[in-house]
Amino acid sequence: MYFSTAAIVAALSATASAHGGVVSYDIGGTTYNGFVPYNSASGQTSIQREWDSYNPIQDPTLASMACNAAGAPGSLVATVAAGSKVTAYWNKPWPHTIGPVLVWMANCGGDCKTFEPTGNVWFKIDQAGLISGNLDTGLWSSGEMVANGSSWTSTIPSSLKPGNYLIRHETIAMHTAGQPQWYPECAQLTVTGSGTGVPAASLLAAIPGVYSLSDPAMSVDVYSTAAQTTTTWAIPGPAVYSG
Ligand SMILES: *[C@@H]1O[C@H](CO)[C@@H](O)[C@H](O)[C@H]1NC(C)=O
Ligand SMILES: [Cu+2]
Predict the structure, then answer these.
(1) Is residue 242 part of a domain?
(2) Residue 8 lies in a domain
(3) Auxiliary Activity family 9 catalytic domain spans which residues (predicted)?
């Protein structure tokens, strides 16, 4: 089959307008640009790991769930003091208002530029699901993110042991019953400070691994009759590490 270049460009831009991801950060008061999808990786310098498509991930068992596809390491690392604020900015306005926002970190062990985040390495530093109201018409954290200029601000736990870490921002769009859309992006950090805090093993999870399409939280139909009287939603995965 033959596709004209114009048709492909039109299809790409239609896709891009409905999806996306984290495009920049404010880390401890310094602005960092994200990787630019659809542009060649060659010549791009960013603290963010490479992601090549605005499309969501719809199979939570894929390796790309960790840091999106291709997930190749960034060339830069942001230095940030434990206890500082990190704000992620999505393409604006972020188009999805139903679903959670989660922020994870993983200790790179050594250099994040050679680290592959496999196994139980991820811990949460922040999460929010259904904030108020019911599953259908209530306020979800992704709605709050959109209302906040398509941004989400979290704090690096002040007692976190210094070292090199990935920070992974994730929002999940829940508007299609049984088929959530995952949007994860990772950035590379060096955390400074004098803390000694290390998350307990019970707070660590593997990504992929922590999510499943058969999890009732993930398969819920937010437009069902039952959803109109459901005012709680269990966020998947371990509890948040607060330091
Ligand atoms: C939303 O915006 C308010 C007001 O600027 C801010 O205090 C709050 O931290 C923001 N929430 C998140 C999760 O970023
Ligand atoms: Cu989308």
Answers:
(1) no
(2) no
(3) 19-227
Domain extent at residue 173: 20-229
- Domains in the chain, number: 1
Check residue 17 and give its pLDDT.
56
Which one, of 66, 9, 28, 53, lies nearest residue 208 by Cα?
66
Q: Which residues surround ligand 2, an ion (CB under 5 A)?
A: 18-19
- 234, part of any domain: no
What CATH number corresponds to the domain at position 142? 2.70.50.70
174 alpha carbon, closest ligand: 2
Q: Strand (E) positions, the chain? A: 22-27, 30-33, 78-81, 85-90, 101-107, 120-128, 130-132, 139-140, 151-155, 163-173, 181-192, 205-206
Task: Give the pLDDT confidence of 96-117 residue by residue, as tens digits.
Answer: 999 999 999 999 999 999 999 9
What number of other Cβ atoms are within 10 A of residue 76's Cβ?
A: 14
Task: Tell me, rounded to whole angstroms, the distance of Cα 34 from its chain centroid.
Answer: 13
Cα torsion 33, 35, 36, 40: sign: positive
10 pLDDT higher than 60: no
Closest atom of ligand 1 to 153 CA is 14
